[in-house]
Amino acid sequence: MIENRYKKGPREECGVFGIYAPGRDVARLTFFGLYALQHRGQASAGIATSDGRMAYTHKGMGLVTQVFNEDNLSPLQGHLAVGHTRYSTTGASHVRNAQPYLIETIHGPLGVAHNGNLTNALTLRQTLLERGVGLSSTTDSEVITQMLAAPAGIWTNGNSSHAIDSEPDRWVARIRAFIQMAEGAYSLTILTRNAIYAARDPLGLRPLCLGKFPDGGYVVTSESCALLTIGAEYLREVNPGEIARLDQYGIASFVGQESTKKALCIFEYVYFARPDSTLEGQVIHTVRQQMGRQLAAESPVEADIVVGVPDSATPAAIGYSMKSGIPYTEGVTKNRYIGRTFIEPDDKLRQIGINLKYNPLTANLQDKRVVLVDDSIVRGNTIGPLVELLREGGAAEVHVRVSSPPVRHPCFMGVDMATHRQLIAHQLDTEGIRQRIDADSLAYLSLPGMVNAIQEALDGKSGHCTACFSGDYPISIPEWLFDENREKLIFEEMWG
Ligand code: 5GP
Ligand code: MG
Hints:
This protein has 496 residues and is of the alpha+beta class. The chain contains 21 helices and 23 strands.
């Protein structure tokens, strides 16, 4: 629910998927695609399909494999589909907020899967409610769906007689009209009767890319790792501000809004994206290794072994080892079968989660001076207990190195860090954090160091959103969103 999103932080770092592939089992391929995007969200999953006549959907709470089985996959008929995996930080995530949204419109079914966060969702929602549109959930994603269901222009003019679908492709017109009104982050996959549409906000805040099967059929996905999984090849990214249509004629491209500046979320490189995915032409694993090298150059330390926090910090730890010459080894084992949904509901449970999740590899740690590399410190819940764990496991010294800068600023564009007070680096300086986590030393990668590591292969051709590290927001953020007590002041009363 939206009040929970803003209490504990926006919910999304979701995964979206879309496929147009006549003659194939698109529901099953979407299932496998979502399976590859599972890391982007574990709270709920869903698929909607169309056979050109009817639309079908199934969604539920939990992991992709918990939601789907033979019985509920096989009724999802058709040759086109969209799918979604949803991230949620709160225990109170509801199935009514699960995606994709599927509704019936005058032009047939409309299904929407959304990754991102609209910063003007409240205003858009108010507009819908004032015009008599009822909503069944409290997500910005349902707002998007309802906006697309009406002819382009209706929301801006408030007069349906002006609201005609002027373009040959009414869905392109509607998506474009939505883009004109929307602010914030959105990567969308949209199901209609005969075509899949993909759209990305003009800043390109969240990733989205296109692929195709060698023998026909097209795919759109948050990350390229899902293409490999289903045997499709990578074509290109959906450009910021672009609308793409996938149908029997291939992939058609339309300008939704001219993109003047690119601001891909830099946290995709730090943590979100899977290491085998490609972003902006670079393999994530390689970039993370480069960040680790840079970290070693900036903050060397005398030590015997380099250990990464599995799994996401492994590439950075390898990079640190390569640059420093200190051998890389495993120092903790991670139990990979602990669902994130189980450990996430509140901070106390997160703490217990650490002990369930990691065990020290005593044989490797005994009397060793350890460099412990993690990819990020956000709330500070992970690293403190891990330092303690390594000491219990026999480590003589634990030097923490973080392959991103301190997270000091909230994110309103789709990442789970929406208030200052939940961010440990907003409360404490680096020495304060070092004491809190009881490390022998602590150092973060510098912001220029991180940007260089990422942009090295890009020749400065790209721009990134670094707001959580720099406070430099690529869009103007409404003042009230910075109000730390806003959930009490606004959402509980208004949306309760
Ligand atoms: P912290 O425990 O400081 O709040 O979060 C940092 C740790 O969690 C790091 O080990 C990092 O790999 C991981 N992490 C960073 N961002 C996120 C996120 O948005 N969701 C989840 N589940 N883990 C995250
Ligand atoms: Mg981690």
